[in-house]
Amino acid sequence: MTPMGYVLILLAAVCWGLIGPVAKLAFREGMEPLEVAFWRAALGGVLFGAHAAWRRSGRVAREHLGVLVAFGLVGVTLFYGAYQLAVEQGGAALASVLLYTAPAWVAGMGVLWLGERLTPAKLVALGMTVLGVVGVALGGSAEVRPSVSAVGWGLVSGLAYALYYLFGKRYFERYDPALLYAYALPVGAVGLLPWVSFSAKTPVAWGALLGLVGVSTYLAYLLYAEGLKRVEATRASIVATLEPVVAAVLAYVWWGERFGPLQYVGAGLILAAVVVAVQGGRVSPRTERGAR
Protein backbone atom coordinates (compact mmCIF):
# COMPACT_ATOMS: atom_id res chain seq x y z
CA MET A 1 0.00 0.00 0.00
CA THR A 2 1.40 3.38 -1.02
CA PRO A 3 0.16 6.97 -0.59
CA MET A 4 0.03 7.31 -4.39
CA GLY A 5 -2.50 4.48 -4.48
CA TYR A 6 -4.85 6.41 -2.23
CA VAL A 7 -4.35 9.54 -4.33
CA LEU A 8 -5.33 7.63 -7.48
CA ILE A 9 -8.45 6.18 -5.83
CA LEU A 10 -9.39 9.62 -4.54
CA LEU A 11 -8.97 11.15 -8.01
CA ALA A 12 -11.18 8.41 -9.45
CA ALA A 13 -13.84 9.25 -6.85
CA VAL A 14 -13.62 12.91 -7.86
CA CYS A 15 -14.09 11.93 -11.53
CA TRP A 16 -17.17 9.86 -10.66
CA GLY A 17 -18.48 12.64 -8.45
CA LEU A 18 -18.57 14.92 -11.49
CA ILE A 19 -21.17 12.80 -13.29
CA GLY A 20 -24.30 14.35 -11.80
CA PRO A 21 -23.20 18.00 -11.67
CA VAL A 22 -21.83 17.89 -15.23
CA ALA A 23 -24.93 16.08 -16.50
CA LYS A 24 -27.04 18.92 -15.12
CA LEU A 25 -25.03 21.28 -17.31
CA ALA A 26 -25.99 19.19 -20.34
CA PHE A 27 -29.65 19.28 -19.22
CA ARG A 28 -29.50 23.06 -18.97
CA GLU A 29 -28.27 23.16 -22.56
CA GLY A 30 -31.39 21.36 -23.75
CA MET A 31 -30.39 17.69 -23.65
CA GLU A 32 -32.70 15.04 -22.22
CA PRO A 33 -31.38 12.62 -19.56
CA LEU A 34 -31.60 9.53 -21.76
CA GLU A 35 -29.74 11.26 -24.57
CA VAL A 36 -26.92 12.06 -22.13
CA ALA A 37 -26.90 8.40 -21.07
CA PHE A 38 -26.85 7.28 -24.71
CA TRP A 39 -23.89 9.41 -25.74
CA ARG A 40 -21.97 8.48 -22.62
CA ALA A 41 -22.39 4.79 -23.45
CA ALA A 42 -21.79 5.13 -27.19
CA LEU A 43 -18.69 7.34 -26.99
CA GLY A 44 -17.41 5.44 -23.97
CA GLY A 45 -17.62 2.24 -26.00
CA VAL A 46 -15.39 3.84 -28.64
CA LEU A 47 -12.75 4.76 -26.06
CA PHE A 48 -12.79 1.36 -24.39
CA GLY A 49 -12.72 -0.35 -27.79
CA ALA A 50 -9.61 1.61 -28.75
CA HIS A 51 -8.09 0.81 -25.36
CA ALA A 52 -8.77 -2.92 -25.74
CA ALA A 53 -7.36 -2.92 -29.29
CA TRP A 54 -4.22 -1.09 -28.15
CA ARG A 55 -3.69 -3.63 -25.38
CA ARG A 56 -4.54 -6.51 -27.73
CA SER A 57 -7.03 -7.83 -25.21
CA GLY A 58 -8.43 -10.44 -27.57
CA ARG A 59 -12.10 -11.36 -27.84
CA VAL A 60 -14.87 -12.54 -25.58
CA ALA A 61 -15.64 -16.23 -25.98
CA ARG A 62 -18.81 -16.96 -27.94
CA GLU A 63 -20.45 -18.76 -25.00
CA HIS A 64 -20.15 -15.59 -22.90
CA LEU A 65 -21.67 -13.19 -25.43
CA GLY A 66 -25.24 -13.72 -24.24
CA VAL A 67 -24.32 -12.88 -20.66
CA LEU A 68 -22.40 -9.84 -21.87
CA VAL A 69 -25.42 -8.59 -23.84
CA ALA A 70 -27.55 -8.97 -20.71
CA PHE A 71 -24.94 -7.06 -18.74
CA GLY A 72 -24.99 -4.29 -21.34
CA LEU A 73 -28.78 -3.98 -21.13
CA VAL A 74 -28.92 -3.99 -17.32
CA GLY A 75 -25.54 -2.58 -16.32
CA VAL A 76 -25.51 0.13 -18.98
CA THR A 77 -28.99 0.73 -20.46
CA LEU A 78 -30.84 0.52 -17.15
CA PHE A 79 -28.07 1.87 -14.93
CA TYR A 80 -27.00 4.82 -17.06
CA GLY A 81 -30.59 5.72 -17.90
CA ALA A 82 -31.92 5.45 -14.34
CA TYR A 83 -29.04 7.46 -12.92
CA GLN A 84 -29.50 10.35 -15.35
CA LEU A 85 -33.24 10.40 -14.67
CA ALA A 86 -32.52 10.49 -10.93
CA VAL A 87 -30.15 13.42 -11.44
CA GLU A 88 -32.72 15.32 -13.49
CA GLN A 89 -35.63 14.71 -11.13
CA GLY A 90 -33.91 14.79 -7.74
CA GLY A 91 -30.57 16.50 -8.21
CA ALA A 92 -26.97 15.35 -8.46
CA ALA A 93 -26.40 14.98 -4.72
CA LEU A 94 -29.51 12.86 -4.15
CA ALA A 95 -28.78 10.59 -7.11
CA SER A 96 -25.19 10.00 -6.01
CA VAL A 97 -26.21 9.10 -2.45
CA LEU A 98 -28.93 6.67 -3.57
CA LEU A 99 -26.47 5.02 -5.94
CA TYR A 100 -24.58 3.90 -2.85
CA THR A 101 -27.43 1.65 -1.82
CA ALA A 102 -25.71 -0.81 -4.19
CA PRO A 103 -23.84 -2.77 -1.45
CA ALA A 104 -27.12 -3.28 0.41
CA TRP A 105 -28.72 -4.58 -2.79
CA VAL A 106 -25.75 -6.92 -3.24
CA ALA A 107 -26.09 -8.23 0.31
CA GLY A 108 -29.82 -8.74 -0.10
CA MET A 109 -29.45 -10.56 -3.43
CA GLY A 110 -26.71 -12.72 -1.95
CA VAL A 111 -29.03 -13.87 0.84
CA LEU A 112 -32.16 -14.31 -1.30
CA TRP A 113 -30.71 -15.71 -4.53
CA LEU A 114 -27.28 -17.13 -3.72
CA GLY A 115 -28.05 -18.74 -0.38
CA GLU A 116 -25.49 -16.67 1.50
CA ARG A 117 -25.70 -16.32 5.28
CA LEU A 118 -27.27 -13.17 6.71
CA THR A 119 -24.40 -12.09 8.93
CA PRO A 120 -24.78 -9.42 11.63
CA ALA A 121 -22.74 -7.01 9.48
CA LYS A 122 -25.06 -7.51 6.50
CA LEU A 123 -28.14 -7.10 8.68
CA VAL A 124 -26.81 -3.87 10.19
CA ALA A 125 -25.83 -2.54 6.75
CA LEU A 126 -29.27 -3.33 5.33
CA GLY A 127 -31.01 -1.67 8.27
CA MET A 128 -28.83 1.45 8.03
CA THR A 129 -29.47 1.67 4.29
CA VAL A 130 -33.25 1.42 4.69
CA LEU A 131 -33.26 4.09 7.39
CA GLY A 132 -30.95 6.24 5.26
CA VAL A 133 -33.23 6.01 2.23
CA VAL A 134 -36.20 6.96 4.42
CA GLY A 135 -34.29 9.98 5.71
CA VAL A 136 -33.24 11.09 2.24
CA ALA A 137 -36.74 10.57 0.84
CA LEU A 138 -38.73 12.21 3.65
CA GLY A 139 -36.32 15.00 4.42
CA GLY A 140 -36.16 18.02 2.23
CA SER A 141 -35.08 21.58 1.80
CA ALA A 142 -36.05 24.46 -0.42
CA GLU A 143 -33.40 23.32 -2.91
CA VAL A 144 -33.82 19.52 -2.77
CA ARG A 145 -37.36 18.14 -2.50
CA PRO A 146 -37.21 14.54 -3.70
CA SER A 147 -40.19 13.17 -5.59
CA VAL A 148 -41.25 9.55 -5.53
CA SER A 149 -39.93 9.11 -9.07
CA ALA A 150 -36.55 10.68 -8.19
CA VAL A 151 -36.07 8.32 -5.25
CA GLY A 152 -37.33 5.42 -7.34
CA TRP A 153 -34.89 6.05 -10.18
CA GLY A 154 -32.08 6.49 -7.65
CA LEU A 155 -32.85 3.11 -6.09
CA VAL A 156 -33.10 1.47 -9.52
CA SER A 157 -29.65 2.84 -10.39
CA GLY A 158 -28.30 1.37 -7.14
CA LEU A 159 -29.87 -2.01 -7.94
CA ALA A 160 -28.52 -2.02 -11.49
CA TYR A 161 -25.08 -1.01 -10.26
CA ALA A 162 -25.16 -3.83 -7.71
CA LEU A 163 -25.28 -6.27 -10.60
CA TYR A 164 -21.77 -5.09 -11.49
CA TYR A 165 -20.60 -7.11 -8.51
CA LEU A 166 -22.31 -10.32 -9.57
CA PHE A 167 -21.08 -9.94 -13.15
CA GLY A 168 -17.64 -8.69 -12.18
CA LYS A 169 -16.99 -11.45 -9.69
CA ARG A 170 -17.20 -13.98 -12.50
CA TYR A 171 -15.85 -12.18 -15.56
CA PHE A 172 -13.58 -9.26 -14.61
CA GLU A 173 -10.82 -11.64 -13.58
CA ARG A 174 -11.24 -13.69 -16.76
CA TYR A 175 -11.12 -10.81 -19.24
CA ASP A 176 -9.57 -7.37 -19.40
CA PRO A 177 -12.35 -5.09 -18.05
CA ALA A 178 -11.71 -2.64 -20.91
CA LEU A 179 -12.57 -5.43 -23.36
CA LEU A 180 -15.84 -6.16 -21.56
CA TYR A 181 -16.82 -2.50 -21.66
CA ALA A 182 -15.89 -2.32 -25.34
CA TYR A 183 -18.71 -4.85 -25.85
CA ALA A 184 -21.17 -3.82 -23.13
CA LEU A 185 -21.26 -0.05 -23.64
CA PRO A 186 -22.35 -0.19 -27.32
CA VAL A 187 -24.99 -2.79 -26.39
CA GLY A 188 -26.21 -0.45 -23.68
CA ALA A 189 -26.31 2.46 -26.13
CA VAL A 190 -28.44 0.41 -28.54
CA GLY A 191 -30.76 -0.46 -25.65
CA LEU A 192 -31.24 3.22 -24.88
CA LEU A 193 -31.74 4.27 -28.50
CA PRO A 194 -35.53 3.69 -28.78
CA TRP A 195 -36.16 6.11 -25.89
CA VAL A 196 -33.75 8.86 -26.98
CA SER A 197 -34.89 12.16 -28.43
CA PHE A 198 -31.89 13.77 -30.07
CA SER A 199 -31.44 17.51 -29.83
CA ALA A 200 -29.28 20.16 -31.43
CA LYS A 201 -26.24 20.60 -29.22
CA THR A 202 -24.41 23.71 -28.19
CA PRO A 203 -20.62 23.69 -27.74
CA VAL A 204 -21.23 23.68 -23.98
CA ALA A 205 -23.40 20.55 -24.29
CA TRP A 206 -20.72 18.77 -26.31
CA GLY A 207 -18.14 19.84 -23.74
CA ALA A 208 -20.25 18.36 -20.95
CA LEU A 209 -20.67 15.10 -22.87
CA LEU A 210 -16.96 14.80 -23.63
CA GLY A 211 -16.21 15.46 -19.97
CA LEU A 212 -18.59 12.72 -18.88
CA VAL A 213 -17.06 10.27 -21.34
CA GLY A 214 -13.39 11.16 -21.12
CA VAL A 215 -13.11 12.06 -17.44
CA SER A 216 -15.97 10.42 -15.53
CA THR A 217 -16.01 7.17 -17.51
CA TYR A 218 -12.64 6.41 -19.11
CA LEU A 219 -10.13 8.34 -16.96
CA ALA A 220 -11.89 7.28 -13.75
CA TYR A 221 -11.53 3.63 -14.79
CA LEU A 222 -7.81 4.05 -15.49
CA LEU A 223 -7.19 5.82 -12.18
CA TYR A 224 -9.13 3.27 -10.15
CA ALA A 225 -7.56 0.26 -11.86
CA GLU A 226 -4.08 1.71 -11.29
CA GLY A 227 -4.93 2.53 -7.69
CA LEU A 228 -6.02 -1.05 -7.03
CA LYS A 229 -2.50 -2.17 -7.87
CA ARG A 230 -1.25 -0.19 -4.85
CA VAL A 231 -4.14 -0.38 -2.37
CA GLU A 232 -6.05 -3.45 -1.21
CA ALA A 233 -9.57 -3.65 -2.59
CA THR A 234 -11.40 -3.19 0.72
CA ARG A 235 -9.60 0.05 1.52
CA ALA A 236 -10.03 1.28 -2.05
CA SER A 237 -13.77 0.68 -1.87
CA ILE A 238 -14.06 2.74 1.32
CA VAL A 239 -12.03 5.63 -0.13
CA ALA A 240 -14.26 5.58 -3.23
CA THR A 241 -17.29 6.39 -1.06
CA LEU A 242 -16.03 9.97 -1.17
CA GLU A 243 -17.75 10.15 -4.57
CA PRO A 244 -21.15 11.30 -3.24
CA VAL A 245 -19.39 13.82 -1.00
CA VAL A 246 -17.72 15.30 -4.09
CA ALA A 247 -21.03 15.24 -5.95
CA ALA A 248 -22.84 16.97 -3.08
CA VAL A 249 -20.20 19.71 -2.75
CA LEU A 250 -20.16 20.40 -6.49
CA ALA A 251 -23.96 20.30 -6.70
CA TYR A 252 -24.11 22.92 -3.95
CA VAL A 253 -21.41 25.16 -5.44
CA TRP A 254 -22.60 24.92 -9.06
CA TRP A 255 -26.35 24.42 -8.74
CA GLY A 256 -27.30 25.55 -5.24
CA GLU A 257 -28.45 22.08 -4.13
CA ARG A 258 -28.57 21.76 -0.35
CA PHE A 259 -29.94 18.86 1.69
CA GLY A 260 -32.23 19.36 4.67
CA PRO A 261 -31.03 18.12 8.11
CA LEU A 262 -32.84 14.79 7.86
CA GLN A 263 -31.38 14.20 4.39
CA TYR A 264 -27.85 14.72 5.70
CA VAL A 265 -28.54 12.13 8.40
CA GLY A 266 -29.94 9.73 5.81
CA ALA A 267 -26.97 10.24 3.48
CA GLY A 268 -24.59 9.61 6.36
CA LEU A 269 -26.37 6.35 7.23
CA ILE A 270 -26.18 5.11 3.64
CA LEU A 271 -22.46 5.85 3.36
CA ALA A 272 -21.77 4.36 6.80
CA ALA A 273 -23.64 1.23 5.69
CA VAL A 274 -21.18 0.90 2.79
CA VAL A 275 -18.28 0.85 5.24
CA VAL A 276 -20.06 -1.71 7.46
CA ALA A 277 -20.80 -3.93 4.46
CA VAL A 278 -17.24 -3.75 3.15
CA GLN A 279 -15.63 -4.35 6.53
CA GLY A 280 -18.06 -7.19 7.14
CA GLY A 281 -16.75 -9.08 4.15
CA ARG A 282 -19.19 -8.09 1.41
CA VAL A 283 -17.20 -6.02 -1.01
CA SER A 284 -18.56 -3.08 -2.93
CA PRO A 285 -19.01 -3.44 -6.69
CA ARG A 286 -16.09 -1.06 -7.13
CA THR A 287 -13.61 -3.66 -5.91
CA GLU A 288 -14.18 -5.65 -9.07
CA ARG A 289 -12.34 -3.05 -11.17
CA GLY A 290 -15.56 -1.89 -12.72
CA ALA A 291 -15.87 1.29 -14.68
CA ARG A 292 -18.87 3.54 -14.40
Topology:
Layout (H helix, E strand, L loop, with lengths): L2 H15 L1 H10 L4 H22 L10 H26 L1 H8 L2 H12 L6 H19 L9 H24 L5 H16 L10 H26 L4 H8 L2 H13 L5 H19 L13
Helix pairs in contact: 1-10, 1-12, 2-4, 2-5, 2-10, 2-12, 3-4, 3-9, 3-10, 4-5, 4-8, 4-9, 5-8, 5-12, 6-7, 6-8, 6-13, 7-13
Main location: membrane
Protein name: EamA domain-containing protein
Pfam families: EamA (PF00892)
Structure description:
This protein is mostly helical. It has one domain. Helix content is 75%, strand content 0%. Helix 3 crosses helix 10 and helix 5 (92-99) runs antiparallel to helix 12. The longest helix has 26 residues, at 65-90.
Give the structure's gist in a few sentences:
It contains 13 helices and no strands. By secondary structure, the chain is mainly α.
Q: Given the helix and strand composition, which structural class is it?
A: mainly alpha
The fraction of residues in strands falls at under 5%
Sheet of most strands: none
Instruction: Classify the helix fraction into a percent range.
Output: over 70%
> Which consecutive residue ranges, at least 5 long each, have pLDDT under 50?
none
Distance between the termini: 24 Å
